[in-house]
Structure formats: structure tokens, C-alpha cells
Amino acid sequence: MSEVKKFRLTCIVCPLGCTVEVTIEGDRITGVEGFTCPRGKEYAIQEVREPKRTVMSVVKVKGGTFPTVAVKSDRPVPRELIPKIMRELAEVEVEAPVSVGQVIVENVLGTGANIVATREA
Amino acid sequence: MRSEYDTVVIGGGPAGLAAAIKAKELGMSVLLIENREFLGGIPMQCVHPGFGLHYFKEDLTGTEFIHRIIERFRELDIEYYTNAHVLEIVPYSYRHKILRVVTEEGIFEVRAKTVIYATGARERHTFEIGITGHRVAGIYTAGEAQTMMDIYGIMPGREIVIVGSGDVGLIMARRFTLEGAHVKAVIELMPYPGGLTRNVVQCLEDFGIPLYLSHAVTRVEGKKRVERVIVTKVDENLRPIPGTEESIECDTVVLAAGLVPYLKVIEKAGVKIDPATKGPVVNGYLETSVPGIFVAGNALVINDLVDYVVEQGEEAAEGAYEFVKNGGLPALKWRKLVKGRNIRLAVPHYLADTKDVTIYARVAEPEENVKLRFPEIGKEIRLPFVRPSEMIRVKLRGDEIARAEGRITMEVVRDE
Q1: What is the ipTM of this complex?
Q2: Across the interface, do B390 and A15 touch by the CB < 8 Å criterion?
Q3: Residue B8 has what pLDDT?
Q4: A45 at the B interface (CB within 8 A)?
Q5: What is the mean pLDDT of residues A40-63?
Q6: Chain A partners of B49 at a C-beta cutoff of 8 Å?
Q7: Which residues of B touch A55 (CB under 8 A)?
Q8: pLDDT per position as a tens digit, B348-405
Q9: Total Cβ atoms within 10 A of residue B298
Q10: N or C end: fewer C-beta atoms under 10 angstroms in chain A?
């Protein structure tokens, strides 16, 4: 018999904030309870295996309407990489004009996610 | 520039932009006046997601959400000023208002048949939440700190204490941490967090930021800059308990202690204010007690979703359109919306049977398995839960409103 572990977590997919309990035996997920939608179930499994978040920040802009442009990762990235990504973004400076959706950093730290602009500058 | 407009919109945030777009689409002549140096309002400084789920059916960041609205505004080629302030609105006659406006080009007067007031809200400041002590550098409201960091690229501080655990405070805690600052604590007066649970999880727990419930910052200390805050436990009546003081070293205090509709200019024009919303009293067209002055967005009532703000902007524009078309709104039989059990606030305040209406309301206490009831018109809606932090939005059709002779009560009752 492998060890049984239970994880209680709060779903962050929507404002409801359901409490979801995930049961793991060894490295197998044997139970997910408490979710109220399929996205919640998916989130809970992902959160136990490899927590991911979307990164949001601003980077410097040269010669634009604003000194910064808001950016985000176009898909969630592993949570533990976020501080490293933030340090990398602190070094980035782009030239104006910048349009919404423009790729600022491609495949950031090899995560497969691009950092894209979310504001004009 | 013309000398008279069908409508002048004051405020270039989501409510004002949406109102101007709708007014222009309805064929009105429109001028928009914004006091910041750019259009877009607060979403311009909101780099986080959670915007637009209702309106665009997509999860957008604040900046992405407002970008779409601004693009539409530009397509319509609507006249506007930035860096401009409205000093005064003079209700010159029933059908005309005069606005005194100061711009970079000078001070001038504009005549308007209607005004849509969409100035948003102001943030509550130290004196309103009982913080005493030194008035030193390093005390900011959340919005000020957000503007510095996310528009102008300046870090407001390094060692931060946040006052207030509403969604704004929580999101700022995460934002500061990601930018390399150390958020030492979030201080909450109430015994429970003010924001959504999911924000407590992803903004505080993800980063190990302590949340002090039933605590208040009672004092700020420092010589030139903030050096520490004194935090005190509060009792069930929210009064500080002597002897429980604790000091937290920090260089910055960020106040995220709630918003109040910003009404300075229309208050002077004489609109009636609702003490519950702290915004104007309005009818189903979102018209205030001064005919021809409409209001939308956080200037009307503090909203939790930008989607509702945009919707109110559009509703106010439709009201202004009716006003201009008919030389005033039609005389209707208005029924007062009365706040019943567990309803803390509700707008609009008056409903008419010729007009479908969207009601925005908040409860006083959290409850589960309840019904939202309008007894006079026999309408009931089952809700799994209600919470003070989450606005209730409900539509009533004109024919439903017509069933009531007099007032219409809105109440939350247990679902037996």
C-alpha cells in the first residue's frame, strides 16, 4: 500500500472559491471532491501536480506615451518560475510604439509562454 | 468645437467612454472631458486579469479591456479633452446646462442639453479610517501606488504595510511582492477578509503574506518618511483594545480602505445624495434629481465589476438620448424601490413601468440558500448565497414593475 495524502485547496478559477480536496496515493490521483465545475476539477489536479499562474507586470518603454507598458504571459507558467521571470522582465526595455498583443519576450525561460503587451505605449 | 452639445460626458474611464460611445451611436453630439492626461481611467493601471467576463465573455486584464473600449471610441471620432477639469455645472434651465471647463487652452463655457457624470470614485484616506500620527512621506492610497508603479514605473517603497483586505488591497499585495517589495502585512478591521477567497489564496497565501484580521492601523510614525506603524487589535464593536499595540517596521503604508463616489461638482449643482450608496439618488434612466444630469459607474454606486460600470454608462446615455429627443424625460409614474430585509443599498431608487431596468444592490450580511423577493410584484429569485462584497444584479421588466401600485420592496429571505 502506498501512502495516501489529501490536499485541501481553494479553487481560484472563478469568484465562487470552492474548496476542493484532492487525494493522492503514491503518485496517482485517486479522488477529487468538492469542485462544482469541470474547470475546477482541472485546476485542482494541475495545482497538486504543478501549480501554474499567469504572470503580469510592466516593462520599460523608450519614447512612448507612457514610460511603461503592461504585459502578461499568454498562458500560465509554473509558479516557482515566476520570481525568475520577473527578474528577467525587469531588464527588458522596448521601443515605442507598442501595440496590444505584441510579443515582448518569446518563449520566456523556455516555458513555451510568450510575454505579450496588454496596453499601448 | 461646437458651442452646444446634446450631451457632455464628464470622465474618460469605462463608464464615461461607454456612455460617449452609446450617445454617439444614438446620433447625439458628444463632448467628453477627462482630467487625467490620458483616456481609460483606472483600468489603465490594472495589469491583472478578471475584467470583461460578462461584457466581452473573455477574461481580460484591465488594460486589455479598456483598450477595446478606447478603440471603439476612436473609431467614432468623438470629441474629447484630456487634462481638463469641469469647475462647475450650472443648471441654467430645464433643457440646458452650462459647464465651466478649464483646459490647457484656457477656461471656457460649454452648453449642454444633458450631462453624463462619470467621474468614478475617490479612495478613503487616513483621517476617515482613524489613523493618527505623523504626516510623513510614504503614505499612499492603493490607486496612487498603482499609478506610480504600473503607469510611471516608480516603486513607491520597499517595506510595505497594506491597510484593507478588499480585492484592491489583496491584488496590490501580490503586485508589490512580484516587483520585489516586501509586504509585511495586510491589516483588516473586520474579522473576515474583505475580498474574494480566491484572491486571498493567490495574492497572500501564494506568497506567505500575513493577514491580520480584527486589527487596525492606529498610528503612523516616522521623521521624514514612514518608519513604523502601530497596529492594534479591535473588539467586536471595532474599537481598538488598549494594551494590544504592536509595532511593524516599514517605509510605506498603502491604504486600500474603500471607495466613495466622487461627486464634488454635481453636489454643487444640487443633486440629492443617498446616504447608503453615497452616490446620487437616480431614477430608472439613471437621471439624478437635477433634470438632465445623468450618472453612471462608480460615481453612481461602487461596483465590483467593470462590466456593470460599462452597462451603466450605456444606460445613462440612453437616458440622455430620451431627454434630448423629447425635451425632457417623459412624466412617468415612478415607484420607489424600498430596501427590505438584508438589503443595504440598491440603485436605481425609482422605477417606472414603461421601462425595463437593471437593479444593482448589495446585502448587509452574508447568507446562504436565500431568495431575492419583490413581494408587491410577486417575483422571486433563488440564490445559492449572497455576500456584502458581491453585488447583486437583477433585471425587472416594465410589465413586472406595472404590477405594483405603489412602492416596490426588494428583500432577501431564507429559502424554506
Answers
A1: 0.89
A2: yes
A3: 98
A4: no
A5: 92
A6: 54, 56, 72
A7: 178
A8: 999 998 889 999 999 999 999 999 999 999 999 999 989 888 899 999 999 999 999 8
A9: 27
A10: N
Residue in A12, A53, A72 nearest the CB of B61: A72
Residue contact B153–A15, C-beta within 8 A: no
Q: Express each pLDDT in A58-81 by its tens digit.
A: 999 999 989 999 999 999 999 999
Q: Is the pTM of this model over 0.80?
A: yes
User: Tens digit of pLDDT for each residue in B53-84?
Assistant: 899 999 999 999 999 999 999 999 999 999 99
Asked whether residue B90 carries a pLDDT value surpassing 70, the answer given is yes
